[in-house]
Amino acid sequence: MNGFILGALTTLIILFLFGRLKNFFNKPVIARAIDRRLSSGPYILAVGGGTGLSTLLRGIKSFTRNITAVVAVTDEGGSSGRIRNEWGMLPPGDVRNCIAALAENDNELKKILDFRFDRGELAGHSLGNLLLLAVTEMSGDFSTAVEKMNHLLSIRGRVLPVTTEGIELMGKTKSGLEVKGELDISAHGHELDEVWIEPLSAKSLPDVLSAVDEADVILLGPGSLFTSVIPNLLLSDFADKLRDCPVPKIYICNLMTQPEETQGMNIVQHLEWVTVALGCTPDFVIANNEPIPEDIIAAYKEEGAEPLFVDAEQREAIKKTGSILIEASIMSIFESEKEGRVVRHDPQKLASVIFKLVRNLDE
C-alpha cells in the first residue's frame, strides 16, 4: 500500500506542476489567433471510446475547439479494470486517452499520461489513470474529476463519461448463451444476437444530454463496435436524445474487422447494429477506400482480422437504408514496435473529410 500511496502523491505533484505550467506552451499572439479561429468552428459531439475516439479527436481539434467527447465507461481490462475493482471508480483509461488527445501539446502529454509503472504495487498502472483516481478521491466524484482535468489541461473542448453509474455490458448469442462484461462481449461479438446494459434504468449525465442540444453534427465511431460505440447508445435516454436530434449523424467505419468481436462482419452489418442501438439510420457513413498493401493484409489475417471495404452489393444495401456513403482515403500505415506495420485512421485525413462534409451541408 505504501507504494500505491507514493504513486498517488506523485500524481498530485504532477497535477500541481501541470496547473503551474499549463501556459508554458502557449505563444500569446499565435495562441489568440488560433483560439479565435477554433472558437468559431462548428459544435461537434463525438461518441465512442478506446483508441478510435482519441484518434478522431486529435484530428478534429485542428478545425474547432467546440468539441464534446462522450466516452463509454464499460472497460474492465488492464489498469482501468483493476482500479474499477479495487476502488469502485469508473474505468479511467478511455477518458484519459481522450483528454490527452484534445490537449494543446498532445504528443508530450500523452507520453506522460500513458507512462506505465513496471514494478512494485503500481506495476501495470498508467500515470494518467492514477492521476484521475487521485482527483476523483479529492473531489469525491468521477465526473467532477474529469471536468477538473478538462480545465486543468486547457483542452480544446471537453470530455465527458456517458454516465457515472456502474453499468455492465450484457449480451446473448444466437445459440442462447448469455455473456457478461466487456471482455466476454468482445470474445463473442460475431455471435451476438442481442446486447444491452445492466441496470437498464441507468441514466446519462445531464451535461451529456445538453451537449446533444448544442451539436451541429454528431459523430459515431470509429472504434470497437460492441465495446466502444454501442455501449453509449444502450443508455436509452441518450439514444432517444440522439435519435430525435435533427442534426446530421455520421457513422465512421473501422478500417479492419476485430478478431472475435466483429470477425466475418462487413460494413453493412456494422451499420445495422448501430442503427438498432441508435433507433435510426445514420445520415452518413464514412468508409475507407485506400488500398492496403497485401503483406499487411496477410499479417492481419493471421490474427483473424480483414479489411473493411465497401463492395457494389454493400453500396446498394447502404443506399436502401437512406444513408449517404462517403468513401475516402482516411488511413495511414504506422510502424509499431510490437505489431510491425499496422493500419490506423489518419487523424488529419479523417477530420478533413468530416469538415468538408460539414461545410457542404452549410452551403
CATH architecture of the largest domain: 3-Layer(aba) Sandwich
SS-derived structural category:
alpha/beta
Q: What is the name of the CATH class of the largest domain?
A: Alpha Beta
Mean pLDDT: 88
Low-confidence runs: none
Q: Which percent bin holds the helix content?
A: 40-55%
Number of DSSP strand runs: 12
Q: Main attributes?
A:
363 residues, alpha/beta, Rossmann fold, 3-stranded antiparallel sheet, 16 helices, 12 strands, 17% strand, globular
Please give a structural write-up.
The protein is α/β, with parallel strands linked by helices and 363 residues long. It has two domains: 1-40 and 73-158, no CATH class; 44-71 and 200-363, CofD-like domains (Rossmann fold). It has 16 helices and twelve strands. It has a seven-stranded parallel beta sheet with strand order 3-2-1-7-8-9-10, with helices on both faces. A three-stranded antiparallel beta sheet has the order 5-4-6. The chain has a two-stranded antiparallel sheet with strand order 11-12. It starts with a helix and ends with a helix. The model has no long low-confidence stretch (mean pLDDT 88).
Summarize the structure.
The protein is an alpha/beta fold. Helix content is 48%, strand content 17%. The longest helix is centred in the first third of the chain and has 20 residues, at 2-21.
Write the layout of secondary structure elements.
Layout: H1 2-21, H2 28-39, E1 44-48, H3 50-60, E2 67-71, H4 78-87, H5 93-102, H6 106-113, H7 127-139, H8 142-152, E3 158-161, E4 168-173, E5 178-180, H9 182-187, E6 192-198, H10 206-214, E7 217-220, H11 225-233, H12 236-244, E8 249-252, H13 267-278, E9 284-288, H14 294-302, H15 312-321, E10 324-328, E11 331-336, E12 340-345, H16 347-362
Parallel strand pairs: 1-2, 1-7, 2-3, 7-8, 8-9, 9-10
Antiparallel strand pairs: 4-5, 4-6, 11-12
Helix pairs in contact: 1-7, 3-5, 3-16, 5-6, 7-8, 10-12, 11-13
